[in-house]
Design goal:
By secondary structure, this protein is α/β, with parallel strands linked by helices. It has helices at residues 35-46, 66-81, 93-101, 121-155, 162-172, 177-199, 207-246, 249-255, 260-298, 303-313, 316-343, 348-378; strands spanning 11-16, 22-30, 53-64, 85-89. Strands 1-2-3-4 form a 4-stranded mixed beta sheet.
């Protein structure tokens, strides 16, 4: 038995008859704040009834919301699970209205949802394998569709939507110039300063220019530019196309006779392939400028000697090798961004997941293909 002088404070009294019947008188206010605690107390007081019936007296309940109704539903479920009868008595009009709103009399509606059982490890492994198999099939299918669309554009250039391609070139290339230049400049500073700490011991300060130029032009320039483009444009491609997918705009394009891949993906892929190599050259120049700052102000080199050593080190092969890698990285970033956008299903959360997946997958593929390029060059 529980009681309290405050009429709004929830309490109850339990009366047991000689025949085994139980009558519970609820008092006070049962809402979202009080119902969970009272549910545990009532369950402990009720125990395991061994006969008769259970009657809930609601005449002194001042307020009851849907959480209070859920408390009553839980009591009913416990009582009926023991094979006893359950009933409500002296229900106030306001309480009856709430119970009617939540369909308390319909036991299939006002009942806590059963806890979903987690499948075992074998089932989860099978689901993962099937999901990856489906994703792989979709990736291959989209890759084939994109290649066919690009081939059709090469045969008939008028099929390419040049207006959208120019817009995407502006977004991917021109708008990315400040951040790409800043990152390239800072990378040049860091590499020059770090290498100078070692080379200065041997009086080889002039070779700082060679290290910065080779590292940026052949490796770091294409990689860092592609990663920046993946974070900016790859995620944007996935979000834009994913939003069109969940809003059924792509289905509308298909119904109107447009090829979705040719209409949406090809302009973005072409724009990336055209502007990312230029961004890479831009990053290389700023990195060399960053190394020049360190060489002139910290290593007592002249601008003429630093630039001369850079030109002596770099060859046309190194520049072309970096540009080739940037073209491949651009194709990967734009293809993955469009792919994740077309794969989006569901609601707004799927758009965010598509953008995140596009960036992660693009960075993984960039590193993977850079490793392939390194192996090819080592055996060339």
């Amino acid at each position: 038995m529980e009681s309290n002088s405050n009429p709004d404070t929830p309490s109850y009294e339990v009366h047991r008859s000689e025949t085994g019947d139980i009558r519970i008188e609820l008092k006070g206010k049962y809402d979202v704040r009080t119902a969970p605690a009272m549910r545990r107390r009532l369950a402990a007081s009720l125990g395991a009834p061994n006969g008769g019936r259970v009657v809930i007296d609601l005449s002194q309940v001042s307020h009851l919301d849907d959480f209070g109704a859920l408390l009553l539903s839980d009591l009913r479920q416990r009582v009926e699970a023991g094979g006893l009868s359950f009933s409500l008595d002296r229900v106030p009009e306001t309480v009856g209205q709430i119970l009617s709103l939540v369909h308390f009399d319909d036991e299939t509606v006002c009942r806590p949802l059963p806890r979903k059982e987690r499948p075992n490890a074998v089932v989860r492994f099978g689901q993962t394998v099937l999901r990856h198999a489906f994703n792989t099939r979709y990736m291959v299918s989209f890759l084939g569709s994109a290649l066919l669309a690009l081939f059709s554009v090469m045969v008939r250039p008028r099929r390419l939507r040049w207006g959208d391609t120019l817009i995407q070139m502006e977004k991917t290339g021109v708008d990315a110039l400040p951040i790409v230049g800043l990152i390239g400049f800072l990378l040049g500073l860091v590499m020059a300063f770090t290498s100078a700490l070692q080379l200065e011991q041997f009086g080889a300060n002039i070779y700082v220019a060679s290290l910065v130029a080779l590292a940026m032009v052949s490796e770091l320039g294409p990689i860092m530019t592609a990663i920046v483009v993946a974070g900016r444009s790859g995620s944007a491609f996935a979000a834009e196309i994913g939003t069109m997918r969940i809003s059924e705009e792509i289905d509308a394009l298909f119904v109107m006779g447009f090829h979705p891949t040719l209409f949406l993906a090809v302009p973005r892929i072409v724009a990336c392939i055209l502007v990312v190599p230029l961004l890479t050259l831009f990053a290389d120049l700023f990195a060399i400028a960053g190394g020049l700052v360190v060489g002139v102000f910290m290593l007592d080199l002249t601008p003429h000697s630093y630039i001369g050593q850079t030109m002596k080190t770099l060859t046309l092969f190194e520049v072309n090798w970096g540009l080739l890698k940037s073209v491949v990285f651009a194709a990967l970033v734009s293809w993955v961004g469009c792919l994740r956008g077309f794969q989006a299903r569901g609601g707004a959360a799927s758009v965010g997941n598509a953008a995140t997946s596009a960036v992660v997958t693009a960075i993984f593929l960039i590193i993977l293909f850079d490793s392939v390029f390194a192996v090819i060059r080592s055996y060339w």
